[in-house]
Amino acid sequence: MESLKQLLNRFPVVLDTAKVVAITNDKCHVVSLTTGNDFRKCSINSIIENKHNKLLVYPKISSVVIIGIYSTNNKAVILSASEVEKIYFRNEKSEFTFDGSGFQFNRDGENLKEVLNGFQDGFGKLCDELAKVVVSIGVTPDVPAIMQIKNEIVNINKQALNKILT
């Protein structure tokens, strides 16, 4: 019997299934599907010592998750989710968020969407200035073609980019 107790103490986590009730920051309220126990501060991240570099997978509300329950303090942590609402990653100077509305990339204070939109706006201004050029000898710029290129980059491409990036 003593050897069985020692063996069980080697595995301080009990696995269970639960339903997600609510999410606040990196904590989650879940209810066990087998025992009905409430875990109001279930951790989304199983390793909480590192506050700066992390990967968080946020489950959807009402989805089923696998939780680990620490037998030493009866606290729970999400180990796996049946449905994912959002993924968040941060490492040193980089941040990445992916959810139903798109992607968001930040690096060293710069946002990828803002940088690309700024490029497209600048390209549109360049097309506007180029369309004003009149050549006295030879062929003048094809203003309709320039404006079509501008429209494709500034409007159509920008709308597609904004669908992808949040």
Order of helices and strands: HEEEEEEEEEEHH
**Largest β sheet strand count, sense and barrel closure:** 5 strands, antiparallel
| Name of the CATH first level of the largest domain | Mainly Beta
Mean pLDDT figure = 84
Structural class: alpha+beta
Figure out the total of helices.
3
Any idea of the CATH topology of the largest domain? OB fold (Dihydrolipoamide Acetyltransferase, E2P)
Instruction: Write out the strand line-up for the largest beta sheet, numbering strands in chain order.
Output: 3-2-1-5-6
How would you describe the shape? elongated
How many DSSP E strands? 10
Strand content: 35-45%
Count of discrete structural domains: 2
Uncertain residue segments? none
Q: How far apart, in Å, are the first and last alpha carbons?
A: 58 Å
The CATH architecture of the largest domain is Beta Barrel
Radius of gyration: 26 Å
Task: Give the proportion of residues in helices.
Answer: 25-40%
